[in-house]
């Protein structure tokens, strides 16, 4: 009942919507005429410009006259850069603000007092270029949706999907979502028709035109669409509101956009999905159309090839083939790790544990549930409550709210504070593999990459300010060892510094940031100015997988606030009580998510040291009882000899004595990605040897058990 009441207001004007489209266009035409005669307020007679593109930089001294004010940044670029370069320009940034290249300098300089301007131009190869290109294509999709469904459709939101990494396109693109009345559905068969509408708009070479409007006028123009009214109401008072027109679509939008639609040379609508308006289950269920577009047709072909490979590598598909894990509707977002998946999980944990012992970490176990007061002390209750699972404990006379922990840091603070600490004990490095729970929306749950229950190789380092630099250096070396040396990923580091709102004094921040910069010397890193958390600067580490996708896994975060919230102290050399610094540090991050990324990176072809299926043994003939016995004997002998050699690695060995043909057994073993396949016949039985081949079919040869184990031990030692 609640849902029907809350959604009714979105649908009440549908029978007037066609008329509203016409009124919308009429408003646009009238406003455009008024804008053309609007006087400017320019008080600058001379202008110093620096035009930039990539490494190129061109300073200009401009006399601001009526002819110049009619020019646009795009026209100016044509006078400075090569024509083939300018043809790929999509958007410009003027004094750090993204701006339409079709804006006249009369619009740009209006009310501006400074006569110095930097204009930087961007192509599709940049993050800025992709964002604007895909945003513009979303508007073309909106135009096609209105053309197809007319007055039965109410458009909602149409953003670009952009990664911070310019080279990443696999998960990029755009979508537009809308509500269709009378339970009408967009079908996959209609995507091709929508593409044709879009291609027609592209072919007609429509420019993206912009006008500024007031909040009151915006309400009047979009009164037929409650979704747009919701957006308008959330715009802060005094903030400028703009509308853009492309083809027949007039849409509320902050922009900017590409110069015209003909720059889009390839477009593909990829999928459909449903989503509640603003993620609220009490709001209407919208239909969302996703797509991708490119300025060159060849780029779409390359993207489709990459997508096909990504689908083959999907960790959910590989997990099903290899019996690693599954999910069940009775426990959404919580993986069930099967025996082979558990082997893989435990191997990763054992690997990190081994490194902890080398690097001076102490592993601890902390509770799962805490009273609300702990989360209020840490600040999570105020800022993170909606993402936590809570339990009400008690009787009708007294109830207490219990929060299931979404992170370990408050528990580690209690542990640090459990006794008086001396400066001689610092740094204290606490590591924890306890399961964590976060109340992720059901619609966002995706395999192992987005779950509700997960484990982190989580650690908190309590140290003095003077120890920060050396501890950060150790953390970075740890990250490099794991990702580069063991797993072979390329790494990128981002340093995020003090934001506008922060805790602590500036001198402390400056010193910490300088230490982090010095630690990053020699690494591939970039600065994200002002993007740090309010409680401390941080280093985010991204890995590049075999499909050129970037993922953030590891993070190193300084925290000046949490020690103060918990009033943590240590006794200094002068017997003063000093507040320590906390370093939040995760290497693999969520182990579940890392398994997903590693599965897709390796396409399920696990290295020997990590593989839950290391060796497969089968006889030439399962009907030969002696060979069957010899297969069992070889397996037992491997374990016995390994123990005698002091190797307690619990090799994962399977013996297939079924009546399948030998060829079928070998093929099945290769599909399941066993590293080694031992085929045993009369010759091997007589000589007490094994015939060894790799999963790619390469014959290693005939070996004694000791020689086989020597090879395996070297693979374990070198993490191969």
CATH top level class name of the largest domain: Alpha Beta
CATH topology of the largest domain: Threonyl-tRNA Synthetase, Chain A, domain 2
What distance lies between the first and last C-alpha atoms, to the nearest angstrom?
A: 60 Å
The CATH architecture of the largest domain would be: 2-Layer Sandwich
What report would you give on this structure?
The chain has about 725 residues and is of the alpha+beta class. The longest helix is centred in the N-terminal third of the chain and has 23 residues, at about 125-150. The strands form eight sheets. Strands 16, 20, 21, 22, 23, 24, 25, 26 and 29 form a nine-stranded mixed beta sheet that branches. A hairpin with a 2-residue loop joins strand 3 and strand 4 (about 95-100). Helix 17 packs parallel to helix 18 (about 505-520). The chain is built from 24 helices and 34 strands.
